[in-house]
From TrEMBL:
It comes from mine drainage metagenome. This is Putative sulfoacetate transporter SauU. PROSITE patterns: MFS. Pfam families: MFS_1 (PF07690). One of its GO terms (molecular function) is transmembrane transporter activity.
Length: 204
């Protein structure tokens, strides 16, 4: 359960960088006009729509072809998170404003590729408690979403405009690590709880 929550935390944290700060970033740091920002700020979101679809189709296709839930969920999520990381770093560091927009657009595409496997996992591992698992996962995500704009603003105020994106990149790598080594969609969350020390103490 904790792995599912941690993985989704990293996704929503990075998502809210785009949802809350992107227009301000493009105006204040990249010096685009408001008219241009109206168009350019929408590009990552359109790319995200494509990523949602591609990620969902890819994880189901892999599951159908291999019958391996771990491979189907993990591979798509890891590629999505690392792909986002690969593009978000140059977006932060490049001096060319348009290159930054194109990199952010690509990073949003890859980030949204993770949404399909992310929401499939509560059904894979949750069983009859898939609703509870989904709720807990989304709660963790919303915590990340609430923290993201605060941390971004703090880092810009006391650091620079690159720092929030570097922090996000670090979280993306951590999220990929969670998917690779901790989150197991084949392991029932109920079985995991029953095997935990807390459950053993309650049953004693």
């Amino acid at each position: 359960m904790w792995a599912i929550m941690c993985a989704y935390f990293t996704y929503v944290y990075c998502l809210w960088i785009f949802l809350s700060w992107l227009p301000s970033y493009l105006v204040e740091y990249r010096h685009f006009t408001l008219l241009k920002v109206g168009l350019l700020a929408s590009l990552p979101l359109f790319a995200g729509v494509l990523g949602d679809t591609v990620g969902g189709v890819a994880t189901d296709w892999l599951l159908k072809k291999t019958g391996n839930t771990r491979l189907a969920r993990r591979s798509v999520a890891i590629v999505g998170l690392l792909g986002c990381c690969i593009f978000i770093v140059p977006a932060a560091l490049t001096e060319n404003a348009y290159t930054a927009v194109y990199c952010l657009t690509a990073s949003m595409f890859f980030l949204e590729c993770t949404i399909g496997p992310s929401w499939a996992v509560p059904m894979d591992a949750g069983g009859k408690y898939s609703g509870t698992v989904s709720g807990m996962m989304n709660m963790a995500g919303n915590i990340g979403g609430a923290l993201s704009p605060l941390v971004f603003g703090f880092l810009v105020q006391y650091g620079n405009w690159q720092a929030p994106f570097i922090v996000a990149a670090a979280l993306l790598v951590m999220g990929a690590g969670v998917w690779a080594f901790w989150l197991d969609p084949d392991r029932s969350v109920l079985e995991a709880f029953e095997a935990s020390p807390v459950s053993a103490e309650q049953g004693a």
